[in-house]
Design goal:
The protein is α+β, with helices and mostly antiparallel strands. It has helices at residues 42-49, 101-108, 110-122, and strands at residues 2-11, 16-22, 25-27, 30-32, 53-60, 66-75, 87-91.
């Protein structure tokens, strides 16, 4: 089974998410994984246990050949990265039109949006990464 995960970086000061442009589609930073995302890194284990990384969705394809987990990673403020050529911090209510289909489905899901809003509300006065 192919397993991937996406990190939805969410800035507490602007409440915007980090998007990267890949293959003419806006998406979140993703990576392949062998085990649980949290088991792959000691740093991720620490961030997860402190509530800095929060799982919000696990998608499993109908044929069970593909699994994709989406995680929120809270950051105090927006940052720039050199990992991608083109990045943008976007308001959740004003997303670009050429958004990756899977990410669009995730962010348009009312349950997922409620989870994101709850995470923001619970962490509005907390310092994170």
């Amino acid at each position: 089974m192919q397993k991937r995960a996406g990190i939805l970086y969410l800035s507490l000061d602007t409440q915007r998410i980090l998007l990267i442009l890949e293959n003419e589609k806006w998406s979140v930073p993703t990576f392949a994984r062998k085990n649980s995302v949290i088991e792959d890194s000691v740093e991720l284990q620490e961030d997860f246990s402190k509530g800095k990384i929060v799982p919000i969705e696990l998608y499993l394809s109908q044929d069970k050949g593909f699994e994709y987990g989406t995680y929120i990673c809270l950051v105090n403020e927006e940052f720039l990265t050199t990992k991608a050529n083109t990045i943008s911090w976007c308001d959740l209510n004003y997303l670009p039109k050429n958004l990756h289909t899977g990410l669009r489905n995730t962010l348009n899901n009312s349950l997922i949006r409620t989870k994101i809003e709850t995470v923001l509300e619970l962490n509005k006065d907390v310092n994170t990464i």
